[in-house]
Write a structure and sequence with these properties.
- With 41 residues, the protein is α+β, with helices and mostly antiparallel strands.
- The chain is built from one helix and two strands, in the order H-E-E.
- It has one helix at 13-25, and strands at residues 26-31, 34-39.
- A two-stranded antiparallel ribbon has the order 1-2.
- Strand 1 and strand 2 form a beta hairpin.
């Protein structure tokens, strides 16, 4: 089994920007005991 270290796994800038954009755009809210996702755009 291969163990990946930080030096071996560095996502591209494009991938990081996509993850950040997604994280800032989508949120969750708990309503009547259920979690729901919603988009801020």
């Amino acid at each position: 089994m291969k163990i990946f270290t930080h030096e071996e796994f560095e996502p591209s800038t494009k991938t990081l920007n996509f993850i950040l954009e997604f994280a800032h755009t989508y949120r969750t809210v708990e309503f009547n005991g259920h979690s729901m996702a919603y988009c801020l755009n």
